Amino acid sequence: MRASFSDSELIRAYRGGDEQAFEILLSRHQDRVFTKIMFIVRDTDLANDLFQDTFIKVVGLLRAGKYVEEGKFLPWILRIAHNIAIDHFRRNKKMPLVRGNDDFDIFNIINTGETNIEDKLIQDQIHSDVRDLIDHLPIEQQEVVRMRIYQNLSFKEISESTNVSINTALGRMRYAVLNLKRLIDDNKIQLTPY
After folding, report:
1. Global confidence as pTM
2. Domains and CATH numbers, the chain
3. Most buried of 4, 10, 175, 191 (most Cβ within 10 A)?
4. Measured between alpha carbons, how far is 72 from 158 in angstroms, rounded to an integer?
């Protein structure tokens, strides 16, 4: 019967001492939360650890009465998961930010036309190389690039999902492109088939 309760009702029940209410909340939202974390970290073991950290924090906040019920439990928990994943990468920063004013766009040089199996293999390798390069960006830039390129989200959608302004999302994308160009140049990587 409790499975039909709204998130708000389950939260009230949990705060009233009903532990099973939280288990229902967890099972209801665990796939979305894990997917959000996995999208950011791209490592199953790490995602599992951060997923557990997220729910430990949620339990603590709920018990402390720090969640204000506005009917937005899922966005709230996704924001916590996002912040925990970002904090993990901030503690383990991979690369300094590169600033510049080039208008180079790495994605303009990736040709998506497929004429034969050899071209397809080459394109697959280029896309793989680009994905590997993206892994070397600061985490905030990785997130914007993946949302824009692989999920085809607008900058408005990206700004709402990451809880930053559109200008910040655009700036992160711009610096990501500049950083990718620097990585390509520094490592003499060729992203064209010929």
Report:
1. 0.50
2. 2-91 (1.10.1740.10), 106-186 (1.10.10.10)
3. 10
4. 18
